[in-house]
Amino acid sequence: MLAACIIAFSMYSKIPMPRVDWNEKNMKYAFCFFPLVGAVLGAIVYGIGTLLLHIHVGSLCFAALMSVIPIFFTGGIHVDGLLDTLDALHSYGDREKKLEILKDPHTGAFAIIGAMCYFILSLGAWSEIPSRGLPVIAVAYVLTRALSGLSVVTFPLAKNTGLAATFSDLSHKSRVKVTMIVYSVICSAVLLWIDCFLGIGIIVCSLLMFGYHYHVSRKQFGGITGDLAGYFLQLNELVTLLWVAIACGIGGIA
């Protein structure tokens, strides 16, 4: 289990970890620890965000720092999936063409445009988020990764090679699936406990995005890939930020 945890943090964060063998035994439960990567990220975001608001950093500086913290923490692995998927979707080619674009190391115009739009929206959302929004956003990082992990072991695979196929094939799927569902239920309960209004919105948005994720994966690509899992993760994090920013503004929480 310790080796599985190390693999999860080595793959999905930049936290230094000891070396372990990525063999079948160690990989079996690695995905069970994927949401814990989100828990650590959430704790960092909550701590730094609280500190910045406490010392009254300007809203633009606050938003800029909060927007890049997840990228520094993850090394941009999920952003890579977002950009590759945007390029593939906007190619309007057939399924094989889209899958080929996902493997292409070159960056297309739509990836660059998408990245600009994504971070502008992230910057704007963070500039409107008060301290009350920080704890629910922190928990949302865990929920998003639980749903992303659930998709990898539940959705059909688009291809038999790649990151998603490796983790899916070597995982104990039934136990990982149950673990992801348990994470999701616990996160939902915690969100409702922290702030019922914001929590309900995050849960509803996440479920809608999960449905969209399934639709796009099946219809456009024939199944899940690692890039598509990253695409969902990044979009859900952005939608969560936008919801909290809008809800706080409507409710006069700020």
Tell me about this structure:
- The protein has helices at residues 2-12, 24-27, 34-54, 59-74, 77-89, 95-103, 109-127, 134-154, 163-170, 173-194, 196-221, 226-251.
- It is an all-alpha fold and 254 residues long.
- It has one domain.
- The chain is globular, with a radius of gyration of 18 Å.
- 41% of the residues are buried.
Write the layout of secondary structure elements.
Blueprint: H1 2-12, H2 24-27, H3 34-54, H4 59-74, H5 77-89, H6 95-103, H7 109-127, H8 134-154, H9 163-170, H10 173-194, H11 196-221, H12 226-251
Helix pairs in contact: 3-4, 3-8, 4-7, 5-6, 5-7, 5-12, 7-12, 8-10, 8-11, 8-12, 10-11, 11-12
Structure in a nutshell:
This protein has 254 residues and is mainly alpha-helical. The chain has 12 helices and no strands.
Shape: globular
Q: If you compute it from the alpha carbons, what radius of gyration comes out, rounded to the nearest whole angstrom?
A: 18 Å
Distance between the termini: 42 Å
Mean pLDDT: 89
Order of helices and strands: HHHHHHHHHHHH
Task: Indicate the structural class.
Answer: mainly alpha
| Tally of distinct domains | 1
Range of strand content = under 5%
Question: Could you tell me the number of beta strands?
Answer: 0
Number of helices: 12
List keywords for this structure.
254 residues; mainly alpha
